[in-house]
Structure prediction request, 342 residues.
Amino acid sequence: MRQTRGVTADVIVIGLGAMGSAAADELAGRGHSVIGIEAFERGHTNGSSHGATRIVRRVIEEAPFYVPIVNEAFDRWDALTVDTGTELVVRNGTLRIGPPGSDLLAAFRASAVANGVPYDELSPDDVSERYPAFTVPDGWEAVFEADAGYVYAARAVHTLQERARRRGATLHFAEPVLDWQAGLGRVAVTTPERTYEAERLVITAGAWTSRLTAELGLPLVAHRVVNASFEPTDRALHGPDRLPPFIIDDEDGQGIPGTPALRGGLYGIPAVAGEGLKVGSSGTPVDPDAVDRTVTDGEIAALRAWVERFLPGASGPVASTLTCLYTKTPDEHFVIDVHPEH
Prediction:
């Protein structure tokens, strides 16, 4: 039977992926009483923050104004690592590769220059010398950002949740939010279990944010993203010590003729312990409540074609597959704001 008695806190956070877990942790660290509510079981794979690894980088191609935010984020990752004794971020650089006139590389250079972030310009021969696993087409260009790398994604979310709890936050899992209401300086959030009350509400629900803010009509579209990891023939050449994370811009499909499903580029992360070399591409729009979690043979074949073109030694057996959600706005910038009515 659902309990109706309110639970009082300073802040309620809806959604405990990377963003929500970090918010709950920070708020609890500032001395606020926090209730975190997550629709799915802890450690679920339905959202955007699961899996072994994600790329992290200082230079953000979407706009130069993100870089100062990322600089602070890197400081916070370092502090979290020291505080918890848990390795979370590996800074082995990030490589971007593209054809002449690449929009990705142009945006990278503009953002890096605007913020004074150093980087290296590399030719195809330079890339091959530094990273023998890579094959870069003649005439293409590359840039290397040294102070970037990858984060252990699921481990990071778990670590943030554990520290939030140690700081006093109460976290509830497998409790989907049915409704929330605000007024008279209070907010009430109802789940199948009970109604919680607090002074403030933070919504970090990712692909489900539109469900919780229907009155705003936010133009948020969830995309189904497919990843596959391949077991390389030589793990040493494809591990973090010899290969950085990478982003390949191939807007016109020049790199792999005949694979239009992956036109737009490829990203990847080296083969960390217990994982193969992970690759993925941009996703397709999807209803977050009706996601096909099966990675098809065709999707694997398309990713493998890219791997065989750029990293031929990594085209071994499939080690694992994964689907996740990436939520976009029309201009692909984040929505970080207060509710216009509250």
